[in-house]
């Protein structure tokens, strides 16, 4: 529908998509409603053009330095993706080879993460690492409940210990599954959860501790072995045996390749389960995640359902039911395509670019690094106090966005909310040449801001918390 404009012409309805006459065909409507079903059909070429033109207004994924999610795969992966777009992962009777490949993938991860017996443990693919974390958390809760019931103790007050810098999926887990979250605040002296003061949070209702390999805010590793040592000391004093779930959304696919000496995985006895995100440093398009347990006994049997579906009897372990199978095939393709050495070279290159960028940002003068990208290829910085009279990091973020770069600025979590940082995530595809192009733009914008005669006006709706 169109409406008369004030000058007598016809203006498009803001609730519809107006078609450029170039793309319209004889007899077709010239605008399509946005918030209700069109009355009739459109030609596929027309519908394609409408959707294409809308999506064209999104940002350039290659210039998005905020996201952890993979934005590029090679042409062979693209071809495989199209070939497998119709596969439903839950339909293991119809797609048994895809189901077999899923098992191969999590078994390969179990081996990569030093599970005691990779061929006889258990794992699964998920839509992403958030679902994987929730399955890991559910297993911790059910194991705790089972042990409490066996001891004749109440099971109504479970709690989970994690850093205040935890990713929002853990807040969701505690909210959705009635678990009390206990946040250990980070500080200038303890920038991550490192075991310090852990005894103040642990009690008989603690189902586990979450250790993050690559904190979302800054990219820093939480020292899993050191956390385990703190829990060992607590067990010696109290008898409480507290397991660890490692949220390896990013670091689970970084540390094995470029920090192989770091003990964070199943080499640490307290680690009961590990999750990762295949669509981050697993180098696959979204969405695919993985979770693996140390051994089958670490996953309560009641979390596995036997279902009869589409002609077959099959076990299912997931929060989702039907979900794409294509990303599982893409993950296996990447494992075969790169192998251990290929992943090592890709991740090392990303870390090299991150370290290079961090050094160059630190050399600009106005900034202090929070970390330098030596864990996962992610680093953050803050504005020096003696340089904040005319502009702040939100202003710099806005200026960079004008050049197409998305570099977020946000406050740190509780107890550090007065600290604002900016963060860069280096992914496969951010080359040294592209990094130099970014640095050229950033230096130009910093120089522009420094030349201001007075402070910039600021809106009152700046973010008060980190937007995950």
TrEMBL record:
Keyword Metal-binding: no
Required cofactor names: pyridoxal 5'-phosphate
Family matches, as InterPro entries: Glutamate_decarboxylase, PyrdxlP-dep_de-COase, PyrdxlP-dep_Trfase, PyrdxlP-dep_Trfase_major
Residues recorded with modification N6-(pyridoxal phosphate)lysine: 280
Protein's name in the database: Glutamate decarboxylase
Enzyme class, spelled out: lyase
Similarity-based family: Belongs to the group II decarboxylase family.
Highest rank taxon of the organism: Bacteria
Keyword set, alphabetical order: Decarboxylase, Lyase, Pyridoxal phosphate
Biased composition (Polar residues): 1-10
PANTHER family in UniProt: GLUTAMATE DECARBOXYLASE
Disordered as annotated region, ranges: 1-23
Catalyzed reactions: L-glutamate + H(+) = 4-aminobutanoate + CO2
A Pfam short name: Pyridoxal_deC
One Gene Ontology cellular component: cytosol
GO molecular function, one term: pyridoxal phosphate binding
Transmembrane segments: none
UniProt key word Magnesium: no
Record-level GO BP terms: L-glutamate catabolic process
Enzyme Commission code(s) on record: 4.1.1.15
């Amino acid at each position: 529908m169109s409406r008369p404009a004030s000058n007598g012409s016809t203006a498009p309805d803001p609730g519809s998509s107006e078609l450029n006459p170039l793309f319209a065909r004889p007899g077709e409507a010239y605008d399509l409603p946005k918030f209700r079903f069109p009355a009739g059909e459109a030609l596929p070429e027309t519908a394609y053009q409408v959707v294409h033109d809308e999506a064209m207004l999104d940002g350039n994924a290659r210039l998005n330095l905020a996201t952890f999610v993979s934005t590029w795969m090679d042409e062979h992966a693209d071809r495989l993706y199209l070939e497998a777009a119709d596969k439903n992962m839950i339909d293991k009777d119809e797609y048994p080879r895809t189901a077999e490949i899923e098992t191969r993938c999590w078994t390969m991860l179990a081996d990569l993460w030093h599970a005691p017996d990779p061929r006889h443990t258990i794992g699964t693919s998920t839509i992403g690492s958030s679902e994987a974390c929730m399955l890991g958390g559910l297993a911790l809760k059910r194991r705790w409940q089972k042990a409490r019931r066996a001891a004749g103790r109440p099971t109504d007050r479970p709690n989970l210990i994690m850093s205040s810098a935890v990713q929002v999926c853990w807040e969701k887990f505690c909210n959705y599954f009635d678990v009390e979250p206990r946040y250990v605040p980070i500080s200038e002296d303890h920038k991550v959860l490192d075991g310090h003061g852990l005894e103040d949070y642990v009690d008989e209702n603690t189902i586990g501790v979450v250790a993050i390999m690559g904190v979302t805010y800054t990219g820093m590793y939480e020292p899993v072995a050191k956390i385990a040592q703190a829990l060992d000391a607590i067990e010696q004093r109290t008898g409480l045996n507290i397991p660890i779930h490692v949220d390896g959304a990013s670091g689970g696919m970084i540390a094995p390749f470029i920090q192989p000496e770091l003990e964070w995985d199943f080499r640490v006895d307290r680690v009961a389960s590990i999750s990762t995100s295949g669509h981050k440093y697993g180098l696959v398009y979204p969405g695919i995640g993985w979770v693996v347990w140390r051994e089958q006994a670490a996953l309560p049997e009641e979390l596995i359902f036997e279902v009869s579906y589409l002609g077959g009897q099959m076990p299912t372990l997931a929060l989702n039911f039907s979900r794409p199978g294509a990303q599982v095939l893409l993950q296996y393709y990447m494992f075969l395509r790169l192998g251990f050495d290929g992943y090592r070279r890709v991740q090392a290159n990303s870390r090299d670019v991150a370290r290079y960028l961090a050094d160059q940002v630190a050399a600009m003068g106005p900034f202090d690094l929070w970390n330098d990208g030596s864990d996962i290829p992610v680093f953050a910085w803050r504005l020096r106090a003696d340089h904040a009279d005319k502009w702040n990091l939100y202003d710099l973020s806005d200026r960079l966005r004008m050049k197409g770069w998305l570099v977020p600025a946000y406050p740190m979590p509780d107890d550090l909310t007065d600290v604002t940082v900016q963060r860069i995530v280096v992914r496969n595809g951010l080359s040294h040449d592209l990094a130099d192009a970014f640095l050229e733009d950033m230096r130009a914008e910093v120089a522009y801001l420094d030349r201001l005669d007075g402070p910039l006006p600021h809106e009152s709706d700046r973010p008060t918390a980190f937007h995950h």
